[in-house]
Amino acid sequence: MSGPWDAWLDDALQSLGDAMLLRSLRPLVLPETHVVSQDRHALPTFEGLGPWDRAGVAVEVSHATVDAWLRDSSSTGEEVERNPNHNAGGGDNAEGELHKLLLFSGNDYLGLSVHPAVRQAAAQAAVEFGMGPRASALVCGYTSHHRLLESTLAELKETEECLLCPTGFAANMAVLTAITSVVPGKRGSGGSPVAIFSDALNHASIVDGVRVAQRQSNAEVHVYRHNDMMHLHQLLTNCKRERKVVVTDSLFSMDGDFAPLKELAALRKRHGFLLVIDEAHGTLVCGENGGGVAEAFGVQGHVDIHVGTLSKAIGCHGGFIASSRKWKQWIQSRGRSFIFSTALPVPVVAAAHAAIMVAKKEKWRQHNVWALVRQFSEATGLIFTSPIAPILFGDADAALEASRKLLKMGFHVPAIRPPTVPVGSSRLRITFSAGHTAADVEALVKALPVWAKKKGPSPNFLPTPVSWFPSSLEKVATQKCLHEKHEKVQDKQVRLRPKL
Ligand SMILES: Cc1ncc(COP(=O)(O)O)c(C=O)c1O
What we know:
By secondary structure, the chain is an alpha/beta fold. The chain is 42% helix and 13% strand. It has 20 helices and 14 strands. The chain has a 7-stranded mixed beta sheet, with helices on both faces. The longest helix has 17 residues. Pyridoxal-5'-phosphate (PLP) binds next to helix 8. Pyridoxal-5'-phosphate binds next to helix 8.
């Protein structure tokens, strides 16, 4: 790279650095556990946690990485190569050379990414098929393995069809751009553009999908206040566009709260909009069958398009769109981020399928993760309603300092700052996995400073896991934010947020 680009990039890096926004890669050393079963057709499932589960939550990092991390110095992970004692494979490190870290930061809510059946499915598929025919799905990248996974996901979501995408991000982009390119009547004969209504705290992939749709199809965009159904109703009522789409996360990734899906279903009936929900964090976590937040609320049939990812509770990688056959046809024909990207590798697809099968058999995983949420809520006196438990600071430096303190004590709890969350709402984002034990949560609670434990009434609305899903989700859905302070910050942010 030369010429003006060099200078532009230097400047950009400089300002990011000044704003403390240069991100770093921190290489984790994963423990080795050899658990591939001998029987190639068996799907090993278990009654409880096994040693393999540890690999999903307990890792190690080099001291050089910890030092760089604590100093908040920019890194590309190069310190691991500089340290001659460090071996990225974890092989011949003497004991005590690595810093042990318990992760409370991942999205592998059921711990399936390290499950023996998932490892085995990926390994066998790799041995038998390699990485698959490498091309986009529409060329030659789509196989019977992809089809089987799509059918399994459609069954999970109770939809006619499902379409696999390279990632959840790509799935949201494909949905939003494809939907808004629908022109009624003869192609090119006009029709007013679609109006999109998007929750103020929707995920970045929705925000970007909406932006592209706006540019590409001249879509009219309205951002409604987070979970504020009155605001949405007003915007819908005042909007003269014929074709309307409402899009929302079902379980918000940074706040851990739920979209009020029952109210959205009622509004859909009244206003006749297309309802798109992003179940990235709800799939396999919520609902008796793991169908997601829509299942937990009993509104699966009122949702037109369910977007999901294979990279969170399913423990693998990739995205999907569950919908009617017609919507699938449209999206696979018009969703550019689906069309122009290589299909998922077969081992990943086989592993995701195995993960869903395991989740169905090992129901205790779902129960465990909710039991940990309950334990954490009771121990801290704070109300947490999902395996995503944010502790709000407001100030970015304070959140960073708290994260650093926990890191020193062996807990990885990231500080989430703007632009990921609204200005003034920096937080620690704690997440739970079925791979954690009650002792892990107890240790985390002990490590959290007093400021993070507000002694108050125990959150008695959390009854026994699983049986409580539908009823208590309704209760928490009406709760706009987790803390009073947060509510104020969000209101302010919505006012400040520029139009998409
Ligand atoms: C709500 C939400 N939607 C979509 C995505 C994107 O999923 P993926 O990581 O598969 O691209 C994420 C991931 O962070 C998410 O949190």
